[in-house]
Amino acid sequence: MNDIIKAMKERRSIRRFKPDMPAKADLEQIIEAGLYAANGRGLQGAVVIAVTDKAVRDRLSDANRRIGGWDEGFDPFYGAPAILIVLGNKDIHTGIYDGSLVMGNLLLAAHSLGLGSIWIHRAKEEFEMPEYKKLLTDLGIEGNWEGIGHCAIGYIDGEPPQPAARKENRAFFIE
User: Fold this and answer.
1) Does residue 174 lie within any of the structural domains?
2) Helices then strands, each counted (H, E), the chain
3) What is the domain range of residue 68?
4) Which pLDDT score is estimated for 63?
5) Tens of pLDDT, residues 102-152
6) Residues above pLDDT 70, as percent of the chain
7) Structural domain tally of the chain?
8) What's the angle, vertex CA 16, arms to CA 167 and CA 156, rounded to 5?
9) What's the CATH number where 29 sits?
10) Residues 113-127 pLDDT 10s
11) Quick check: is 119 in a domain?
12) Rounded to the nearest 5 degrees, what angle is found at the Cα of 81, between the Cα atoms of 79 and 84?
């Protein structure tokens, strides 16, 4: 089995992270891998925002928690110190799909570097909020963007979970 397929089969969503920040060089590699994802008509309709500032990360976590309806104190990012936010361009008809492929690449790239990751939703709702629209403006990100997801990244605290059994009757051939 080649290394890419092996990584696809071994990668798991991690729900417990150590507080240690991954190296910036690793995060840069992960982002680069994400930005090389397949995309519609070569329009590259997604962007990535790396959040490593703890105060910003914690505000983002709290907004995500409130949107998700969890009790105060719950961290929907499971303690991951780095959050990569993926946004899709609403003006490109494949923007949401492009962003989803970026997310997949981010998850696999993190795994390939020995880091844990998990896709966390509710970025769509966050980036409809004035606070996060302002964040985009402050970062100089212009355009019409929709939150696709958060790739929470860090060092795994404990053992990765075992894979669930694959359901049957999910692949069909017309020969």
Assistant:
1) no
2) 6, 4
3) 12-154
4) 97
5) 999 999 999 999 999 999 999 999 999 999 999 999 999 999 999 999 999
6) 100
7) 1
8) 90
9) 3.40.109.10
10) 999 999 999 999 999
11) yes
12) 110
Give every CB contact of residue 134 below 8 A, 6+ residues apart in sequence: none
Going across the sheet that includes 82-89, the strands are: 46-51, 82-89, 145-154, 116-120
CA 174 to chain centre: 34
Q: Is residue 68 part of a domain?
A: yes
Based on C-alpha coordinates, what's the Rg of the chain? 17
What is the per-residue pLDDT across 80-109, written as a single tens digit (0 to 9) for each? 999 999 999 999 999 999 999 999 999 999
Q: How many CA atoms lie within 13 A of 8 on its CB side?
A: 7
Question: Does 6 reside within a domain?
Answer: no
Quote the pTM value: 0.96
- For residue 109, give the H/E element and its range: helix 95-112
Residue partners of 13: CB distance under 8 A and separation at least 6? 117, 118, 119, 161
Query: At 119, is the secondary structure helix, strand, or coil?
Result: strand
Can you tell me whether residue 113 is helix, strand or coil? coil
- Reported as a single tens digit per residue, the pLDDT across 46-75 is 999 999 999 999 999 999 999 999 999 999
Tokens of 108: 């696999």
